Amino acid sequence: MTGRRILVCDDEPQILRALKVILRDAGFEAVPAETAEEALDRAAVHPPDAAILDLVLPDGDGVEVCREIRRWSRMPILVLSAVGEEDAKVRALEAGADDYVTKPFGARELVARLQAALRRVGEGPDEPTIAAEGLELDLAARTVRRDGAEVHLTPIEFRLLETLARNRGRLMTHRALLVEVWGPEYADDVTVLRGHIANLRRKIEPPEGPRYVRTDPGVGYRFAA
């Protein structure tokens, strides 16, 4: 990760200073911006490896910045904001953000989320297997094993787990999962999604509680292993 450039857009000087230090200590170079216009200019002239965007900016909306960047770039985008409402999270994620971190934030958590997002960009789309903490998905054979024992999933359960695992660490909204797994006509059927998540967890999770599929209440799920 050393030397990667991270665009940081926030209009609070103390937040910018803190992020510069956090990123420097983690081996990154911070590229600061205080406005939406400045962020888009810097992203276009010398594209960074990732971006951390505030939602509320003096000349616009961080969601719009995210949407504009997504028109031409796959760079990881983390939204960092004091706005913690579910609707704000969903808007940012559906505009193309990879994750959402609420202020006040922990430095270690922020760096971990950033590193996870950067790893996802570097992974090939045709990865034959996905392994995480005792769980193994064979994407070609469409089989799942936990601690070496095969777990029998329905086709929908496998597709749901595969979608989450391919986006490891990323917070996937209810709508994104429903459209990806079931199709656009199911985009608002959260009850269907919750039922299948519950069935999936019964089959793959250890008795002590969720290890692989984590919930962000009211927003969605992430494959956290």
From TrEMBL:
Q: GO MF terms on file?
A: cis-regulatory region sequence-specific DNA binding; identical protein binding; phosphorelay response regulator activity
Q: Gene3D superfamilies recorded for this chain?
A: 3.40.50.2300, 6.10.250.690, Winged helix-like DNA-binding domain superfamily/Winged helix DNA-binding domain
Q: Name one GO cellular component term.
A: cytosol
Ranges of residues in domain Response regulatory:
5-118
According to the UniProt record, list the residues that bear 4-aspartylphosphate.
Answer: 54
Task: State the UniProt keywords alphabetically.
Answer: Cytoplasm, DNA-binding, Phosphoprotein, Transcription, Transcription regulation, Two-component regulatory system
Answer yes or no on keyword DNA-binding: yes
Pfam family membership, one: Response_reg
Q: What is its main location?
A: cytoplasm
Residue limits of the OmpR/PhoB-type domain? 127-225
Protein name (Swiss-Prot/TrEMBL): Response regulator transcription factor
Q: Which organism is it from?
A: Baekduia soli
